[in-house]
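Following the same procedure, backbone shapes were mapped to integers, as reproduced here:
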Amino acid sequence: MKKLAILLVATSALFTAATVSAQESPWLLRVRAVDITPDNKSSPISGSGAPDRISVSSKTIPELDISYFFSANWSTELILTYPQKHDVYLDGSSIGSFKELPPTLLAQYHFMPEADFSPYVGGGINYTRISNVSLLNGSGSLQSHSFGPAVQAGVDYKLDKHWLLNFDIKKVQLRSNVYSGDTQISAVHIDPWLIGVGVGYRF
């Protein structure tokens, strides 16, 4: 009888755990407004003169983030947006523009996943596709893509079982060579800070 009681308790516990697990979705969707602020470091034009003469415009963009939780603490996040246009300046004067599409994949660790105030850190890789380049009246160009590391820190504040507020900071390595014709004339380290606020929904 005692063994039967233990078996019933164990079975009940397993059933309860399975029910809770089934109810808790691993998917989290966030929507953020993100301010992009480039570092704007560049090498001297054609190897001479002052550095950092080339700069790229800041802007605020919409961002969609899809997270999957492998456990309570560990998740992965895919960061998406649509191609963003940036103006390019030389000594403060416009020399053209380009578009960039920067999907980023990050692994995240959540320190207090059960708390209402849940901070996290992340690290991963950014791939930026550069297109629609129009520089120096058509004579200038950029590399078509950039690979680089990305790091992240943020916090989720739970409003209820599903909804949350989010604050997030990322630093992304984004770099490109600048060409005039077939000649490289500079190397630009855009390396932006991305500061975002938004809302999330845990399914």
Q: What stands out?
A: The CA atoms of residues 4 and 10 lie 10 Å apart. Residues 1-22 have pLDDT under 50 and may be disordered. The first helix runs from residue 2 to 23.
